[in-house]
Amino acid sequence: MFDFGFWEIAIIGIITLIVVGPEKMPSLARKAGLYFGKFNKFLNKIKSDINEELKVDEFKEQVSMDQEKISLSEVAEEVRSSIHSLEEDNFLSKEDLKK
Length: 99
Known about the structure:
By secondary structure, the protein is mainly alpha-helical. Helix content is 90%, strand content 0%.
C-alpha cells in the first residue's frame, strides 16, 4: 500500500527509538499497529461498499436492457399478428372478388 522497503522502515524505527526512547517503544508500536489495522479495515469496508454499489448499478442496467428486449419482442409479436390479420383479410377479399 505505501511501498516501504526495509531501509525506510529501519530508518523510521531508529529515529522513533531515539525520539521516544526504548521504554515507550513497545507500547507505541502496539498503538501504531492497532491504528494501522483500524485504517486497513476502514479502507476494506469502503472498497467493499463501492464494489457492492457497482454490482447494483450493473444489475439495474441489465434489468433495464432486459425490459427493453421484452418490450421489443412484444412489439415484434404485435407486428406479426397485424401482418397475419392483414394477410387473412387480403385472402378473404380475393375470395370475395372471385365470387
